[in-house]
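User: Can you recover a sequence for this backbone? Please restate the input before giving your answer.

Assistant: Of course. Working from this structure:
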């Protein structure tokens, strides 16, 4: 496996240098870019090439973390972003970050061991499920009275094909339904029919709800 290329985007240079120093002993990758804000990051990408994981400060001048996530969602499908925080985010901010593609939200006061753990999990599973992410992705899932109790019951209510469709819809590059249909060699109408059935069974109303439910019930077998 190739060495992972990491970018740190933060307007506080001491934070950048501190995180970079902690990553010097992480054996799976290296820091290849430091940027002061999202605009600087965008300009620097042309020179450094591929970035596997980007650690992005939520609060920055010129282009903040949320705007940077939005830019990355359009321009860097293969980069896994982690948002850095110096404050306790509101549920709305967590929801917004996840919707824009953040794979975790971690405190700037994180210690080296947890930082390494976060990068290990993001690079292998697609997400680092710390308490902040877990409470959002599980605690806000719609759970009507008829919702099955327990993971095994949930899995039993889904067909094998529906499990495959969930895997594809929740893929790391957030594919459109047309892309899912093409990858599965099915018609778009068939995918929409499966989606409607899945949403009804899991008690969700959109893709974000499906993602929360998939993590809640551990339905995803491969990296996202």
């Amino acid at each position: 496996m190739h060495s992972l290329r990491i970018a740190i985007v933060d307007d506080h240079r001491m934070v950048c240098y501190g995180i970079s120093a902690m990553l010097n002993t992480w054996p799976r990758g290296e820091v290849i870019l430091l940027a002061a804000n999202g605009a600087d990051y965008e300009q620097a990408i042309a020179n450094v090439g591929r970035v596997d994981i980007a650690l992005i400060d939520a609060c920055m001048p010129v282009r903040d973390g949320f705007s940077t996530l939005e830019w990355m969602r359009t321009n860097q499908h293969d980069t896994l972003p982690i948002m850095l925080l110096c404050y306790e985010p509101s549920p709305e901010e967590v929801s917004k970050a996840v919707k824009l593609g953040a794979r975790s939200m971690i405190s700037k006061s994180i210690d080296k061991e947890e930082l390494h753990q976060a990068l290990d999990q993001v690079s292998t599973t697609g997400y680092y499920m710390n308490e902040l992410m877990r409470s959002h992705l599980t605690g806000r899932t719609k759970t009507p009275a008829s919702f099955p109790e327990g993971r095994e019951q949930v899995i039993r209510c889904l067909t094998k094909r529906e499990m495959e469709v969930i895997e594809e819809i929740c893929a790391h590059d957030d594919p459109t339904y047309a892309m899912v249909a093409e990858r599965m060699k099915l018609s778009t109408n068939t995918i929409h029919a499966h989606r409607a059935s899945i949403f009804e069974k899991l008690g969700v109303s959109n893709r974000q709800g499906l993602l929360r439910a998939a993590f809640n019930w551990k339905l995803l077998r491969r990296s996202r």
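That completes the design. Confidence is low (pLDDT under 50) at residues 140-149.
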